[in-house]
Amino acid sequence: MIDLAVNLLRLGLGLGAVFFVGHGIQALALPISGEWRKLEQAAMNFGLGTVALTLWMLALTLAGIPFSLQVTLVPPVALSGVILILKKRSEKGMVRRAHPAENRKPKTENLVWDRIFLALLALLLLFATLRATFYPMWAWDEIATWGCKAQVYFMSRSLDLTCIEAHNYYPNLVPFLLTYLYLCLGQVNDHLAKAVFPLWGAMLLVILGFLLRRMGLTRTQTRGTVAFFALNGTVFIVHLHLAYADLALAYFALGGAGLIYLWLQDKAPRGSLAVAAVMFAGMAWCKYEGPPLAGTVLLAAALTLLWLRPPGLGGRLLRLGIPGAGLASGYLPWKVYLIKNQIEAGSDHIMGFYPHQLLPSLGYLVDGLFNPFYFGILWPAAFLALVWAGRRLFNSASLFLALFLGGNLLAVILAYVVAPTGAAEFEMYVRATLDRLLLHLTPVAALAVGEGVKELGEGPGANKSPALFPNPHHNPL
Questions:
Q1: What is the pLDDT of residue 456?
Q2: Which residues contact residue 53 at a Cβ distance below 8 angstroms, ignoring those fewer than 6 apart?
Q3: Helix axes 38-63, 196-215, angle to 10 degrees
Q4: Which residues does the chain have with pLDDT short of 50?
Q5: What per-residue confidence (pLDDT) applies to 465?
Q6: Looking at residue 2, what is its pLDDT?
Q7: DSSP state at residue 344
Q8: C-alpha span between 82 and 80 (Å, rounded)
Q9: Whole-angstrom distance, CA of residue 81 vs CA of residue 83
Q10: What is the pLDDT at residue 100?
Q11: Is the distance from CB of 80 to CB of 23 less than 8 angstroms?
């Protein structure tokens, strides 16, 4: 019992350090911190800290320095402490702007439903935490890819791929994070280390909630939409207790795409593009599918701006270079390592073009979107919300959501068309990967559902054509 208490304390301190490092990074990005709520900041800080710590571990690898808790943790924590001290001094006497939600007129809230939604989410996270920590790593990719690498890295105190043949070109954010947690615990302990995944899911839900609030939903609408997302189907729930990288990629995709979406509407707090840049770095450093996913966010945002042609179009397009730089910072260091060590990337996934797989891929995709076992009715609800928008979809920033989701669904089909699988194994290959590819997009689909919920709540007499970009001089960098 004493050993368990000590290990829980070490795990808690290790995770707390991740939040602290992320807090320091966010302090660099935010000109004034008062525009972000504390819980909203914490949810972002977890992802920012994870990116910083794991990229630092990659830098140690490139420098040939063995992993240890001191060398892994002390420099990032010390740097974050210095940043926070300097930021605190610079903010003395500065006037902080109120959070946008504080300026809105009070709206009627349903406390009963609020409590029901929160209770459902709390029960879900409790179940996921118990399920994650009571079971060791057992699923295929937990053992063969992510978990196996983390254990090897911990034992060898380095990024050692000499005894691993499972997708060695995959980025290492998740294995490095698990390695870091093993260093904090002083041992390989899958049960406790897996607790990071329910935490990751909780932070995703918090980010989703704050994005919805900034989009204009009431508190009850927000909590209902978050619960609707979390409790529809099995895919999200299962990934809350699996040591896979897909939940992490969904988290970073939501953070990056969600902040860009707010920025397109002039609803983003200052510092949003810089925070989104770190989220883009997380996408690239998290999983092989991350860079193209981040690229579609930028492409959808650019096409939306070109279609709507808001004031200051050129400047807005140039500012998309900020998250673009974040994407490069997450992609290039690992690419350098691959080139340095002559590791071939992705040849087992893309080797040709197989047009006979097009129609079956389309059928499997439709089944995945509408099969209630996967995501319940969330995807049909998202499609219905986009259709319900009608012409407003083409003269508002909601066009970004349609372009991002539609473009990525087409990309999923293309990915299966170029997948080098035999006819006998193609169905098995699709069924083993489709749910995870859709999970990367589903939190953003929940934003489309939120737009529909907001419109329904406004009623038929409401003005549903608000002016876009009401303040063309607002620059939420």
A1: 87
A2: 18, 21, 72, 73, 76, 176, 177, 180
A3: 130
A4: 101-106, 461-463, 465-467, 470-476
A5: 42
A6: 84
A7: -
A8: 5
A9: 5
A10: 52
A11: yes
293, 260 Cβ separation under 8 angstroms: no
Q: Which domain holds residue 50?
A: 2-74+111-343
The predicted structure's pLDDT at residue 349? 54
Give the pLDDT confidence score for residue 30 in this predicted structure.
78
Angle in degrees, 0-180, between the axes of helices 173-185 and 2-29, rounded to the nearest 10: 130
Number of folded domains that form the chain:
1
Q: At what angle do helices 423-458 and 219-231 cross, to 10 degrees?
A: 170
Domain-embedded: residue 265: yes
Alpha carbon distances (Å) from 66 to 13, 48, 58, 378: 22, 23, 11, 45
Instruction: Provide the angle, in degrees to the nearest 10, between the axes of the packed helices 290-308 and 272-286.
Output: 140
Run of H or E residues at 169: none
Shortest CA distance to 47 belongs to which of 184, 191, 206, 236?
206
417 domain residue, yes or no: no
Residue 437 in any domain: the answer is no
* The two structure tokens encoding residue 335: 């690419």
Domain assignment present for residue 383? The answer is no
What confidence score (pLDDT) does residue 114 get?
Answer: 93
CA dihedral of residues 238, 242, 246, 248 (deg, nearest 10): 110
Residues with Cβ within 8 Å of 342's Cβ and at least 6 positions away in sequence, in order, are none
Q: At what angle do helices 69-90 and 2-29 cross, to 10 degrees?
A: 40
Closest CA to 285 of 338, 211, 207: 338
Rg (alpha carbons) of the chain, rounded to whole number: 22
pLDDT at res. 106: 43
Six token digits for residue 462 = 């409401």
> CA 44, 49, 249: angle at the middle one, nearest 5?
65
Helix pair 111-134, 196-215: axis angle to 10 deg: 160
Looking at residue 302, what is its pLDDT?
Answer: 97
Other Cβ atoms within 10 Å of 103 Cβ, number: 8
Report pLDDT for 189: 94
